[in-house]
Amino acid sequence: MADSVRTQGLFKRFGQQVAVGGVDLVVPKGSFAGLVGPNGAGKTTTLSMITGLLRPDGGLIEVEGVNVWRDPVLVKSRIGVLPEGLRLFERLSGRELLAYNGQLRGIPRDEVARRAEELLTVMDLLDSADKLVVDYSTGMRKKIGLAAALLHNPAVLFLDEPFEGVDPVSANTLVEVLRRYTASGSTVIFSSHVMDLVERLCDWVSVMSRGQIVAQGPLAEVRGERSLNQAFLDLVGAGRDSGEGEGLAWLGSTSA
Amino acid sequence: MAGLDLGVTRQAGQAFTPLGAAETFRLFVRLKLRLVAGNVRGDTARKLGFAFTLIVAAGVAVLGFVLLALLRIVPDRAVAADLGVVVFTVFLLGWTVVPLLAFGLDDTLDPAKLALLPLRTRQLMIGMFAGSVTGPWPLASLVIMAGAVIGLPGGVGGVLLGVVAVVLQFALCVVVSRLVTTSLSGVLRSRRGRDLLAVGMVFVVLAAQLPNLLVNRGVDGDLGAVLHDTAAVLRWTPPGMAAHAITDGGLVAVAELVFLALLVAGLAWLWIVALRAALVRPDASTQAATVRRTRGRGLAGLLPDGPLAAVVTKELKYARREPRGRVGWMAAVGVTVLLSFSFGGDDGPGGAFAAIGPAALGALMVGMQACNSFGIDGRSLWMNAVVHGSPRALRTDLAGRHLAVALIAVPLLTALAVISAVLAGDPLSAVPGALTAYGVLGVTLGTGAVTSVVFPYTVPERMNAFTGAAPGQGGIAFAGSFGAMIASGVLVLPVALPVLLGISWLSVLAVPYGAAVAWAGRRLGADLGYARLPDILEAVSKPS
User: Fold this and answer.
1) Which residue ranges run through the membrane (chain A) (predicted)?
2) Strands A187-192, A204-209: parallel, antiparallel or unpaired by DSSP?
3) Rounded distance, CA B120 to CA B117, Å?
4) Which of residues 117-136 of A touch B (CB under 8 A)?
5) Could you give the domains of chain A?
6) Which residues, 6 or more positions from A7, have their beta carbon under 8 angstroms from its beta carbon?
7) Going by fewer Cβ within 10 Å, which terminus of chain B is more open, N or C?
């Protein structure tokens, strides 16, 4: 199985702090991959560097066999991105946002309109298509962001926390679209710290902790006999003491 | 809920006794100081900025105090009294307007942030009062107003009552300012309200220039009479009464202060009512249903399909819909009109300058908006960054932005050229005027393309009248706009100077020259900028 995304010794520091310290990420082609890790593990920094939005201090990045920082045109035309924080052009309507994104990528106007209409329908955004993005709810913003990322039919899709703050109905829509997308052989890489979701969706998992990959491989291998949540807690070294007998004696309704 | 007793809601543990007034006051002063400290921690630029603010505030406080105290040596006591009345009124106006324009600078101002704490309305009020009097500027204004106690009174009674009057005036300022922000806080939290306020700000800034302009135009100099007439009216406003009470120092003063005290109490009560309402009012910002149908393809529809048309369409929409875009345009036009008026004055340079100058100046002002092209895109610039794979793509992006600016600016500058030519009594000079203006616009856009990539900075989403850049980026913003201004000024000389000196046929060359500079600027900007794209993205995405 060829690799869709491969990094070697990826490194980034902000001032004194090493955010990403030598990440060797591997994601096989056609997989639905989860990048999991606690807050501050370096997931967003890693994804930003792979998608060319942040300059790495060192290391190699290949997407579909092409070096990201050497041939950006080719790479950028083949990836779709949904960054964290829902940063979108707020003062465009959903439909205008898709039109802008498609035309910027050089897709003919009529083709953009056709694809946008279908995406809006699938994402259940038709009613709000002419509202300004600034007035969208979190779920709607994630959906329009995903639609924009899919518009040019990329080979690889990078999603940073796509399900954060999304209601179950919208989340279900997102999942349906993504499943259909990977079924055709395209690759999805998304970061999350919702283990149940990763366990349900992904066939490949990379676990990050403190700027490094601590485990990586097919879901079944990484998880072993445990639940993914337990495997994750073991891997990132979270303490198993539940804090009993260490203070908090006043907490709860029996103490008075 | 503000009104609930702790003892009622707690089932376990003991009920805590609520804090007293003095304790609440101290608690909120400490909270405010913590917020200020937290805001500057770990950021040298912010620390320097805050130290600078402290120094300026202290300087202004001392200067204002001394100036007001010096009213003592004004021989004409009536003039001193009039000045006192006007100054006190200006302070109240300042306290009312400034926090509105700067809303968001201060976490203690928004009652919604405290809504979940079990505070009684009274505690909340004391707390917010404490929060809003803690800070360099409130203290500075108290110190300045205290100067009136030295400057205005005619006797011992005036001094004694003066202390009371200053305290009441300060309380009035604070309560009015709180009342206004609290009653508007619902509106201010909604998008439309903030949009409206951002645009309104331009008018306030321009209105502040009005007196200056009037004096420049020479409203026949009897300032004394103007002052007297103004003060005669303002004297009956509450701040006017406070100032008058200090001057008077007698029984009338006592009556005025009693009225003032009652007024402050009344306003405080209104404030409580507004506060109660604000705490339980739903947040209206998510209910804004703005459905806009896309009509046709507009001007950009005439362009060949592709990235250029995409950028032009988007930029034209942004100039209309984004408050920061609208503010930029309105400020550019407003400043131009103001400056042209000053030029047109008796002592301004006349002739070709009066006819051609305003349009050229307008072009410079409009072009300056492009000296930080990516600033308004801000964090959403990633959407362009994940597409641009070569300097060429970035060049198209810049060209689209320039085209959009030109589409709005050219009719505007043409109108400006015609109007100023007619006003100068030389309608024919509209032609060289307009041509020169187009040339100047091209030059400023060209230099702007370079400064946009060399000195990019974040334009804060929450506009406020006092800074145009995110915290810590003021220096870069200054370097960018100043650099663009100087470079444009120098590059513009070859065409603008001969035309202004009267060789108007040379204006024929202005347009090709401007277009050439704009092209070169885009080329250089794109080559420099493509290599710096991630850095630009970071620079325009600062939290603000």
Assistant:
1) none
2) unpaired
3) 9
4) 130-132, 134-135
5) 3-236 (3.40.50.300)
6) A23, A24, A25, A26, A46, A50, A59, A60, A61, A62
7) N
